[in-house]
Specification:
297 residues, 5-stranded parallel beta sheet, 12 helices, alpha/beta
């Protein structure tokens, strides 16, 4: 295992060595300047991210699921992205799952010691019933977390797809993965504080993975989240506006359509094709829920 001190993410940033002596505005400017490099680091990994999106989407078609696993900040970001998929895309809560070293308690209370056990990582994944059609995304800014590496090794034995997300080129996580995504964000503003640039890069990549897969599998029409689950007043309002945008109808009509169809997609098909809810639902089912296929565009 590569020594921690030798990692790119642990190096000292010459641009911020005197950050404690700057004015508050100068300090924040230095942080912002470093943050601007993160998007470029992610941009360099777009081809790898695209390969991962297509591979995960294909596995979804075979009944597969997506798992994120990490420790500390990496684990928390994985759990965050997974938890936002059901309300945003109306998918089952077990389709995208986040696993953090130390369990859910570690979401609020630091449990970084848990990351040192490869066996614990493998055990946690085994407990989820991981299978050959599933995908495991191992997340570790340093690319050397034993907990993550243990989980990835177990997943590979089962034939599951392994994706390694780290911020150190050539890291152990990258080498252990079938698809490696490695935004090299470099030295942090505060030496070793990978919750900053590395954490931001991780969040950007996870956004792309989950959103990209949902687009590929029909949860988005145009740029509208037509699978939205309207569980509160804000989301009901959004559902109405999505129906209006997709059909050109007014608010009263959108409200009536949504009430009759029970879902955004059904309402849109009813209005666009002039059919009843039952027919709209049947056509969506035939098309695997892909609204664009039903509407012919």
């Amino acid at each position: 295992m590569i020594a921690l001190a030798a990692l790119l993410t642990e190096s000292r940033n010459p641009a911020t060595e005197g950050i404690d002596r700057l004015s508050t505005l100068e300090m924040l400017t230095a942080i912002n300047r470093e943050d601007q490099t993160v998007a470029l680091a992610v941009e360099r990994e777009l081809a790898a991210i695209a390969r991962a999106v297509d591979a995960i989407a294909e596995r979804f078609g075979r009944g597969g699921r997506l798992f994120y696993i990490g420790a500390g900040t990496s684990g928390r970001l994985g759990v965050l992205d997974a938890s936002e998929c059901p309300p945003t895309f109306s998918v089952a809560p077990d389709l995208v799952q986040g696993v953090i070293a130390g369990g859910d308690r570690a979401l609020r209370l630091s449990s970084e010691h848990s990351e040192d056990s490869a066996a614990e990582g493998a055990s946690d994944v085994k407990g989820l019933g991981l299978g050959e059609h599933d995908t495991l995304v191992g997340i570790a800014a340093s690319g050397r977390t034993p907990y993550v590496l243990g989980a990835m090794a177990y997943a590979k034995e089962l034939g599951a797809l392994t994706v390694g997300l780290s911020c150190v080129p050539g890291s152990e996580v990258a080498l252990a993965a079938e698809i490696a995504i490695t935004p090299a964000t470099g030295a942090e503003v505060i030496t070793g504080s990978t919750r900053m640039k590395a954490g931001t890069a991780t969040k950007l990549v996870l956004n792309m993975l989950s959103t990209g897969v949902m687009i590929r599998t029909g949860a988005v029409y145009g740029n509208l989240m037509v699978n939205v689950r309207p569980t509160n007043a804000k989301l009901v309002d959004r559902a109405h506006r999505i129906i209006m945008a997709a059909t050109g109808c007014d608010l009263d009509r959108a409200t009536a359509l949504f009430g009759a169809g029970g879902s955004v997609k059904t309402a849109i098909v009813m209005e666009r094709l002039g059919v009843e809810a039952e027919v709209a639902e049947a056509r969506l089912a035939e098309a695997g829920g892909r609204l664009g296929v039903v509407l012919g565009g």
